[in-house]
Amino acid sequence: MAQLLAGVGVLVGSRAARPTGIVLASACLVGQLMFLSAFPWWSVATMALSVLVIFGLVADPRHVPGMRV
Predict the structure, then answer these.
(1) Which terminus in the chain has less CB density within 10 A, N or C?
(2) What is the pTM of this model?
(3) Distance (Å, rounded) from C-alpha 28 to C-alpha 43?
(4) Is the pLDDT at 9 greater than 60, yes or no?
């Protein structure tokens, strides 16, 4: 639920949503390490997706004019 609210906040342009999304994606990335031995391919795929989410939230949104963030 927190990830959903952070995603909506990023789309709306909230300042607190980007750091919240980074923290939640980082927690997901670390949490997938517990399942790496049981589900290796699924864990690696989820970890890669978490890295892409973190990159997307850290990168500067230059393509959106008038962005509040």
Answers:
(1) N
(2) 0.83
(3) 10
(4) yes
